[in-house]
Amino acid sequence: MTSKIPLSQKILTRRHALALAGAAIAAPATLRSGFAQAPQVTLRMHHFLPPVANAHARFLLPWSKKVEAESGGRIKIDIFPAMQLGGAPPQLFDQARDGVADIVWTLPGNTPGRFPSVEAMELPFIAGKRGVTNSRAMAELAPTHFVKEFSEVHTLCLWAHDHGLIHSNKPVRSLDDMKGLKLRFPTRQAGEALRALGATAIGMPVPQVPEALAQGVIDGAVVPWEVVPSLRLHELVRNHTEFPGSPTLYTATFILAMNKPKYEGLPADLKKVIDDNSGMVAAVMAGAMWDERGTAVAEMVKARPRNTIIQLSADEVAKWRTATKPVEEAWIKSMKERNIDGQKLVDDVRAAVAKNMNA
Question: How many CB atoms lie within 10 A of CB 306?
Fold first, then answer.
């Protein structure tokens, strides 16, 4: 026996269905497409600078958004700045290796001597003045000269920033002014160079610089222009010493590294998205940011009446180069003890920098 549904109930059911359909049509497009565009892979990126830093806002964030867009929304990258996932900056590389984070941005120099080959770019008076020059050189040499040392992770990109300066609470106009000056250094070779120049070199992660200056632990720091605002160096010290032309006093190298199992577990098409945004593409993106922001920051500091930008003369720079030459020679000798041809590395880095000087 078949029961009959009352006409009023049929009308009510039909109205309910139409209402649901209407609500779906009226819903925002982002909500309606949310399930179709839900990320297939979520990656956690970890780094040591605050979100206001140029490296975060103008490189890491745009790079992440580019990867997300080119994956069609299937990759999502959540960025955790200022060591929000825990640990200290020197632990970032191991966090990528161990899967604490999926991607990290860090300096090989945070763990002195662990990655010796990239130090060839960090030796005094090797790097060029521009970030794009140094970054292109690093990206070109990475597959043949550097990546092997980072085999515990998947290397997305290696690059180096633009020229480093001395920012200090007293003017540095000559080699004599360096004697006894307590300066923070970012890499092992920058520290050796400062010692050769007569300074007292003090190593520390860059986020510690403002407090160390305020407490008198250091008299200044060597960093590129780009970093100055995030550390308030233009407020904490008044003197900024530049080295005209190329090569320049120093640079620091960086790595964007990914957990190897996480990368290898990606579908082939998503691997390609990552690959298409690795190597030279990311290096040029990073180098251009350093150059652009460095110029803007230099102009900002120059406009401050209490700050002085000092340009060393060519004759003075020649004295500094002579004083730091033993640092390069000692490094080459030490590399021989590790079965690394240090002289070839230095020659190849110099050639790559010269090749990309006008790129």
Answer: 8
Indicate the residue type of 228. Answer: V
Beta bridge partners of 220: 168, 183
Q: Which two tokens stand for residue 196?
A: 């050769």
Token pair listed for 313: 């003369």
Tell me the pLDDT tens digit for each residue of 285-323.
999 999 999 999 999 999 999 999 999 999 999 999 999
Coil, strand or helix: which one is 255? strand
Tokens 């997305």 locate to 156
221-to-44, 108, 124, 335 alpha-carbon distances in Å: 31, 19, 16, 27
Question: How far is it, in rounded angstroms, from Cα 276 to Cα 280?
Answer: 9
CA separation (Å) from 270 to 67, 96, 154, 173, 273?
9, 19, 15, 52, 5
List the structure tokens of 33.
């497409």
What pLDDT, in 10s, does the model give residues 182-212?
999 999 999 999 999 999 999 988 889 999 9
What residues contact residue 59 under an 8 Å CB cut-off, 6+ apart?
285, 286, 289
CB 44 within 8 A of CB 85: yes
Q: What is the pLDDT of residue 19?
A: 42
pLDDT of residue 37: 60
What is the pairing mode between strands 200-203 and 182-185? Answer: parallel
Q: What CA–CA distance (Å, rounded) separates 280 from 214?
A: 39
Phi, psi angles (nearest 5°) of residue 292: -65, -50
| 8 Å CB contact between 352 and 280 | no
Q: How far, rounded to the nearest angstrom, does the alpha carbon of residue 211 sit from its chain's CA centroid?
A: 22
Distance of CA 316 to CAs 61, 145, 163, 165, 240, Å?
40, 33, 17, 15, 16
- Which value, in Å, is the radius of gyration of the alpha carbons in the chain? 26
